[in-house]
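Hey, I'm writing a tutorial for new members on how sequence and structure tokens pair up, and I'd like a real worked example in the thread rather than a made-up one. If someone can provide the structure for the chain below, I'll link this post from the tutorial.
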Amino acid sequence: MGGRRLRPQGRRHQGRGREIASRTGRPPQHELPLRRRRQIIEAAYEVFTAQGYEATAISAVAARAGIGQGTVYRYFGSKREILDHVIDFGIEKVMASVQLPELLGTATSVAELTDAVRSAADRVYDLVEREPQLLRLLLVEAGAIDPELAQRLLGLEAITAALVAAELTRGVDAGWIRPDLDTGVLSHAIVMMVGPGLLRQLHGVSDPHERRRTTATLLHLLEKALRLPSVAS
């Protein structure tokens, strides 16, 4: 035995495990719970939007995720808890489609700001056209389940409006938006501009020409409201 030193077995096996995971592309063990939860949430989103929340059983979520029903309960205590995360997942989709970094802090004129709002509205419409049941899940099902979910969705509108208000205030401070506006009130109006088109899609009516005409009309009114009196036409 002499001076031979033995390497700790635990460390050797841990290193070996990381090496195998790296070669096979498998995630490290500590990432598996997060990945599994995401897998369940995405499966639940697909089933809830296809069948409706009330009509969906946990077994359907498990089947969609390709796992056992017991595995679902290992990560979530109830279907209602899963819905909370599904709503968050849906909101993430909407916010990602809006692309706030492109909308906020970049405009240097009223024309640039209205173009950014138009692009953001078009991206939201496109998302709803690709996933029409997303809108029903967020606006109808979630609000009908309990007041807490309805308040969360109202909170999303309030947060978005606050961000828009900050952008309007930036334009006022920079001198390219008229200073006598109530930016708080106007910010809510801007957020709600997408409402008419979304409601039509909620009822299964999708007319791109009508959508463009409605958006153009509302943005024309917005541009008139924002321009300085000296340059208003």
